[in-house]
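Example S7 (structure tokens).
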């Protein structure tokens, strides 16, 4: 208290005395300690690494990766089979306190909770980024990417899942998956019809513009990604991020968890082509084998899962031969990489929403005390628009995301652009445009890219994998963006946009300046410099029947030709769904529990 009193007196030398002084000090000390309330009663599961490293216990199931899918899958499996010993191995630690505050979503990137992968440079894309590489964030630690993502919940479009089914995957059509979507929406409490949404005056402006162009505002009516505009629900509870590990771990205490432990590869018995355990490296430097009596499940995400599969000799043979790894099964692991690419467009507005530092401090205090206000949500970023640029049908190929930056913003804009990894000259060009105007950021996002990439092992296989995103390898992807930009011009012409003075800005990029602004040539150049990921890589262990040469797992998520080894994460998606990918990943994990249950129930092993 004395220390606090001295500190306050040094900032504002008023005397502290009597009862008033004491009351005042108590109020101040409450405020000083209020950040502690960000942590609630929830406790992360204990780390069992030490005992496992010392005693070398074997397990029935080993699940690799405690991310979005892995944490759901492992905890639900441990509830379904209480007598089984299930081990969940995670390369990272418990997520940091800063991951809890929704409005700080961008601050988690490039932190200790992020793998911060980088794409391999090519001639068509990421040219405006340092080293011509886009940064691919991916969550590290309990909750995985659900601990650092934007929390937006969308199912995608029903037809996305019809496509999965039509590619030879029985049980994966929308009708079969709907119960899982419903179940998780009830669990995360995002089906509440009373939900009124957050406050943001831009919602109304944007709805007005889209309505003038004859688009419907669906808002919270459903979680499907259909043509029109939509305010989306977030995986938050009581004003804080609800990462999936937090949601699912609270219902189980039967799991064994190893934190800070990297799985290097799966041990495959070459004689009977059967997975029998994993090789792990703990952060202490200890390397050991752990045995799985029944199965190994890979839930390490769409970059690390193919990396581990390749390290374990599951193809592709030609690539493993180059690296010097024995191939047990020649599958197209790491191929079929698909991602949603987003194109930041900056528009000036005559609105002035600048907030003084004092107001920001008060809003932060409001958040600390009540978990309400702007820090409890992600602002305009939860507002979406969907269009079908080519056929004008109800199967969108572009999703619009929105951001807002106030005039001369020194608080968010620069750290945000630096976090994305843009070159300094691009950041300065954008900052110059921001000196006089508030910005509306409109970010068209390709929902169904035709370009595909691949994940490869580097020469030193345990270092970061090579990510060849291959954005715009297929020219139709650029053409879809050009049609999306045409749509932005239509928005510019709506009465409300004209009234607000909203106009597309010309970001000065040296190599693009040789083209006249707003011509197709200018936009091709702009797209190759400015477009980047929205962090939705999927498809690198494709689900499909045996006769699909690109398939890695079957519809029961088992690796073709290898027993006791499955993949349960976003890697298995045969095609990328037309919406943010977390909801679909959760559904995969939940369905996987039922697949395993059916498998072992029929073996009468309960
Ligand atoms: C910055 C960002 C923003 C996003 N925003 C949204 C959004 O708003 N809405 C949405 O729907 N989707 C969003 N996504 C995408 C979504 O979060 C992912 O599609 C989804 O979480 C993928 O889940 P996963 O289980 O496949 O992988 P992850 O959740 O990434 O989990 C993989 C886990 O495996 C661990 N791991 C990796 N390698 C190893 C190893 N060798 N040994 C042990 N453990 C290992 C990782 O540390 C991680 O915990 C975003 C993603 C990011 C990164």
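Recovered sequence:
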């Amino acid at each position: 208290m004395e220390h606090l009193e001295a500190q306050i007196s040094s900032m504002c030398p008023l005397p502290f005395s009597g009862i008033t002084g004491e009351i005042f000090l108590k109020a101040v000390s409450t405020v000083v300690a209020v950040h502690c309330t960000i942590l609630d009663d929830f406790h992360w599961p204990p780390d069992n690494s030490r005992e496992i490293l010392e005693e070398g216990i074997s397990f029935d199931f080993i699940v690799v990766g405690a991310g979005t899918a892995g944490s759901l899958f492992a905890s639900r499996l441990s509830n379904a089979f209480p007598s089984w010993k299930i081990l969940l191995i995670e390369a990272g630690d418990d997520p940091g306190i800063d991951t809890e505050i929704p409005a700080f979503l961008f601050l988690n990137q490039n932190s200790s909770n992020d793998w911060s992968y980088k794409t391999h440079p090519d001639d068509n894309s990421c040219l405006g980024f340092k080293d011509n590489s886009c940064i691919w964030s991916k969550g590290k630690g309990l909750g995985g990417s659900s601990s650092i993502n934007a929390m937006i919940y969308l199912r995608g479009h029903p037809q996305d899942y019809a496509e999965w089914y039509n590619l030879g995957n029985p049980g994966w059509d929308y009708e079969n998956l709907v119960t899982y979507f419903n179940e998780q929406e009830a669990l995360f409490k995002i089906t509440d019809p009373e939900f009124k949404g957050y406050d943001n005056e831009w919602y109304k402006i944007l709805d007005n513009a889209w309505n003038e162009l004859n688009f419907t505002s669906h808002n919270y009516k459903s979680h499907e990604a259909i043509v029109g505009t939509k305010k989306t629900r977030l995986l938050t509870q009581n004003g804080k991020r609800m990462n999936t590990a937090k949601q699912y771990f609270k219902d189980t205490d039967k799991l064994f968890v190893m934190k800070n432990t990297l799985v290097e590869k799966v041990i495959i018995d070459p004689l009977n082509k059967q997975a029998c355990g994993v090789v792990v490296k703990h952060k202490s430097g200890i390397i050991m084998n752990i045995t799985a009596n029944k199965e190994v499940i890979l839930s390490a995400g769409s970059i690390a899962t193919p990396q581990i599969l390749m390290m374990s000799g599951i193809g592709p043979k030609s690539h493993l031969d180059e690296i010097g790894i024995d191939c047990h099964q020649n599958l197209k692991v790491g191929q079929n990489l698909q991602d949603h690419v987003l194109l930041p467009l900056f528009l000036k507005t005559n609105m002035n929403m600048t907030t003084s530092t004092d107001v920001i401090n008060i809003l932060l205090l409001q958040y600390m005390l009540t978990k309400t206000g702007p820090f409890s949500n992600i602002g305009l970023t939860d507002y979406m628009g969907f269009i079908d640029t080519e056929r004008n049908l109800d199967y969108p190929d572009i999703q619009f995301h929105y951001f807002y930056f106030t005039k001369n913003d020194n608080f968010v804009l620069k750290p945000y652009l630096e976090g994305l990894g843009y070159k300094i000259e691009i950041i300065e060009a954008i900052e110059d445009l921001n000196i006089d105007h508030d910005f509306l950021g409109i970010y068209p996002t390709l929902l169904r890219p035709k370009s595909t990439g691949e994940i490869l092992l580097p020469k030193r296989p345990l270092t970061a994998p090579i990510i060849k995103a291959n954005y715009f390898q297929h020219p139709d992807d650029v053409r879809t963006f050009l049609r999306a930009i045409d749509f932005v011009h239509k928005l510019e012409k709506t009465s409300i946009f004209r009234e607000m003075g909203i106009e597309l800005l010309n970001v000065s990029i040296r190599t693009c300046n040789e083209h006249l602004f707003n011509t197709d040539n200018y936009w091709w150049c702009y797209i190759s410099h400015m477009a980047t990921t929205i962090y939705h890589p999927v498809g690198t262990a494709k689900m499909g029947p045996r006769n699909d040469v690109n398939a890695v797992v079957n519809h029961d998520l088992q690796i073709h030709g290898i027993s006791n080894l499955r993949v349960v994460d976003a890697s298995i998606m045969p095609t990328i769904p037309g919406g943010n990918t977390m909801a679909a990943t959760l559904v995969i994990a939940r369905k996987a529990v039922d697949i395993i249950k059916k498998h072992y129930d029929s073996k009468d092993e309960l």
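Notes on this example. The chain has two domains: 2-38, 49-600.
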